[in-house]
């Protein structure tokens, strides 16, 4: 199926703005092949972001891929006339495509989040006496990030390291006053499931952030949040993941902003007393 046929097939599932882009592409393929996304958006009367999000809705990697597919079709049809003078590309459009892709992934992740579960999670993050954060292998940097930010606002925050001795020690401390946050957006290993199961057996609250709503962690989690992935790209996953982590922490702070601001100021005063 060529690109124009694919657009027609998916037309009904597009948003109103994306339908405008779709109709313009169908009617003016030569023009789209020879003009950058911002210029096409101006001609249609929509934002450049809408043009690029249309490309993602078509499961393309961006506007450049849309142009390549259209050019292939024009060559096959023997229609290579530009239809109008080509406007020089003034700027590199890569950064626009990449950052709009990030925005799209964050918005798609937002659609997967249950507001009620999110509210319960931020409240639990506020009320739990101890917070443990687990993220092994590719998820470890995200776990480290969340741990470091939380430590700026509250005490009793611990990252569980991928070391058997540390895992055993931390699991022995976990109890009903504890919250375990599991970040597992890569391949889910058996050791992560084991930790989740043991924590659940000790009546701890368990919140999981994964790359699938069907993750096995669901059986041991009080709340599970899935990160949207576009063509399983790990870099794109991290953007949505960090955004969700920030939202959770902001939700926690909103429970008692003065308390967390005072804790942060105290930390800053202590740190400023030392000479490095």
UniProtKB/TrEMBL annotation:
One of its GO terms (biological process) is carbohydrate derivative metabolic process. Keywords: DNA-binding, Transcription, Transcription regulation. Gene3D superfamilies: Glucose-6-phosphate isomerase like protein, domain 1 (3.40.50.10490), Winged helix-like DNA-binding domain superfamily/Winged helix DNA-binding domain (1.10.10.10). Residues 121-258 form the SIS domain. It comes from the Bacteria. CDD domains: SIS_RpiR. GO terms for molecular function: carbohydrate derivative binding; DNA binding; DNA-binding transcription factor activity. Residues 1-77 form the HTH rpiR-type domain. Pfam families: HTH_6, SIS. This is RpiR family transcriptional regulator. It comes from Ureibacillus manganicus DSM 26584. The lineage of its organism: Bacteria, Bacillati, Bacillota, Bacilli, Bacillales.
